[in-house]
Design a protein that fits this description.
Helix content: 40-55%
Structural class: alpha/beta
Radius of gyration: 21 Å
Number of strands: 10
Low-confidence stretches: 195-205
Oligomer: single chain
Number of helices: 13
Length: 314
């Protein structure tokens, strides 16, 4: 995949780092991408930190990219130049995937690419996006919104969620999980932006114990893993464990475990020839029928159909 990230003057350095890290090289074990930053006029481009970046590619790079990502910039309240909007529209028109991180969504909205679609952006600017572009259905709580060939993501570190979702969608869970492991990140986060509006402050050693329990659960998915057992290992009451778990992850223990089991099943379906019955056992489902029910409900297809989309294994 050829990836071009539009880097406007005043671009956020965090966003540049995120896309460069995800789509940059990850060693010999993971496939690489033809990745480039591009801007209105090649040369020094100011950033939100005051440190200029030297960008060698112009807008013509957008014309050949399979994936175009609009990065956030400090002056997002003013629409980009018409040439930028035309380039984004042209990329979408010829079939490229077009994505936006954070307030990069304002560029896609100005180009008309979000009209009649759902979209998200940083929670702080969601109301502004909705007011300026009433034809866009803004979802302020989402970490990312996938509308087929147009994908938008929330602010700051949610750029990782957006990019990993794109990898998972186009290349499968094994690819996304491999890149996430390389960056020491979870491959998928449940919950939305609302969980980050207030940041809980650790009060004692409970958070460290919680992290240890989550790591233990990942290594023991074949077990039932009732919440009472997880709470016991964390040396907490069940109620305290559930409260601290939700504060730390943005979701419930049951939802976290379900997603972990399904993500592990996805990777096994993609990378092994194990029978579905054995995969169900390894990820903690009592039978292939239970795995199939959960897979269809949460992923939209049965496990065997999912496997066929990535391999030739029947």
């Amino acid at each position: 995949m050829t990836v071009a990230a539009y880097t406007p003057p005043g671009v956020g350095m965090l966003a540049v780092g995120i896309v460069s890290e995800v789509f940059g090289p990850h060693g010999e074990t993971l496939p690489g991408f033809d990745f480039a930053l591009c801007t209105d006029r090649p040369g020094p481009v100011p950033t939100d930190l005051g440190v200029p970046l030297t960008i060698t590619h112009g807008l013509d790079k957008l014309a050949s990219a399979d994936l175009v990502i609009a990065l956030p910039w400090a002056g997002f309240r003013t629409p980009p130049a018409p040439a930028v909007l035309d380039a984004l529209s042209a990329a979408h028109g010829r079939g490229s995937l077009v994505a936006a991180h954070c307030v990069g969504a304002f560029a896609l909205a100005a180009a008309g690419l979000l009209d009649g679609r759902r979209a998200t952006t940083h929670w702080r600017f969601a109301q502004l996006l909705a007011r300026r572009h009433p034809n866009v259905t803004v979802e302020p709580d989402a970490l990312y919104v996938d509308e087929g060939r147009v994908i938008t993501g929330a602010g700051a570190a949610a750029g990782f969620d957006l990019c990993l979702h794109l990898l998972r969608r186009e290349y499968g869970a094994a690819m996304a999980n491999g890149v996430a492991r390389d960056m020491v990140l979870p491959s998928h986060r449940d919950g939305g932006q609302a969980q980050y509006l207030t940041a809980p402050v650790p009060e004692d050693g409970h958070d460290e114990r919680l992290a240890e329990v989550l790591a233990w659960a990942r290594e023991n998915l074949h077990q039932p893993l009732p919440v009472a057992e997880l709470a016991r290992r964390a040396v907490m009451s069940r109620r305290t464990f559930a409260r601290r778990f939700t504060a730390a992850t943005g979701t419930t223990p049951h939802a976290w475990l379900r997603n972990l089991r399904l993500s592990s099943a996805e990777e096994l379906l993609e990378t092994t020839d194990l029978p579905v019955e054995e995969i169900a056992r390894r990820v903690g489902y009592g039978s292939a029928a239970v795995l199939r029910e959960q897979f269809v409900r949460r992923r939209g297809v049965p496990p065997r159909s999912y496997r066929r989309s990535f391999t030739n294994t029947p």
